[in-house]
Design goal:
binds 5-phosphoarabinonic acid, 10 strands, 2 domains, alpha/beta
Length: 449
Amino acid sequence: MRLVQYDDQPLGAFIDPEEYARLAGVIAHHHAELVEKRRDGAMLGWFDYPQRIREETLSAVHSVALRIREEADVFVVIGIGGSYLGAHAAIRMLSEGETGPEVVFIGHHLSSWALERLRARLHGKNVFVNVVSKSGTTTEPAVAFRLLKADLEARYGKEGARRRIIATTDPSSGALRAMAERYGYTSFDIPRDVGGRFSVLTPVGLLPMAVAGIDIEAVLSGARAMMTALASPDVETNAAYRYAAARYILYQKGYDVELFAGFSPRFEAFGGWLAQLFAESEGKKGRGIFPVAGQYTTDLHSIGQYVQEGRRRLFETFLWTDEEGAEVVVPPADDDLDGLGYLVGRDVQWINAQAMWGTLIAHRDGGVPVSRIVVSRLTAETFGALVMFFERAVAMSGSLLGINPFDQPGVEAYKANMFALLGKPGHAERGAEIRRKIEALQTRDESDA
Ligand code: PA5
């Protein structure tokens, strides 16, 4: 049975089969190019990493995770963007949190309130910290790490802190690698040829998953099974390429917003990972589909009105699991005052399925192209398969758009301004110019007031 199924039947009203056929040649060409670039050492290490991960790396992840699971009450993962979203998605989707330490994420914002709250929560707890940063210089995680490192040292002494810190970073360069060497932290490498948002199946995601009790062998085996399923460049049989083709065809027709709608809270954090994967990979040169992650049926009561009747530029990708992993049946009630008698004995997942189909037909009839990504169950294996499916899809989708899906030059703009304002050495020059622009905004604000 296929781990991930792409159901594009509902797109029939929006895409003619001929349109896929017309893209077959260009897709086969981009596929060959991706395979070739992978061989040439471009940022495509993720393409087959689950097959190439070294036994020593896996066993080191297992043994560090075991030590943490035995000793820690709280495991803090510090990272931003690709350095935390994948692990966050996996843990929110799969971990029951019944055994092992609580896993918390920080370093993905600059909220002093959240930092202080976390530090207070850690008092009296046995704490381990995994700081994840490929560059080793990203401000948000660096600030969080400096604070937590100081707290750990104050509490456990330098040696006690050292054995509680695990660094996941570039194999040889960057500030975090230098710190790991200087202080002797346990460390894991982020492969050079794997970019942040493609790194969830490397130690970046695998260590937090293993600490949370997720079967990482199953995650990797699901990804490998998906690699096999996606080996062909044929748009008719390669589901990830068919999905990429559908996105591209819709984009050409003016649909430039994609709403990923998960019909289970277990997809919520996964939606965050997806949004980053697609936005950071595709939003370049004034092109790209803007990804948004939503929760159905929750958001049908908030953004649903817009989806049904707002401006027609949006398409939806439903994320659906056939089984939720729990059976919850509507019980009888003597009075039936709530009028739910007609649902007695029905499983809530069955009700959810009717909501999904009802929504699909309503939105499609309202002019919204809808397709579905379907898994039978949310397991470690399907998580790995989903990751590989979407990574392969975005690689093709970016290639079709004519952009490089593996860089993120635009992320530097805010950083350059922030560094200039912060007075970071080497960035001060721009400071005066940016301050002038800010003053102009503030002067206008004051005169408006
Ligand atoms: O996908 C990416 O490359 C980014 O989202 C990075 O993961 C993010 O900016 C964090 O970078 P770093 O791991 O260098 O701290």
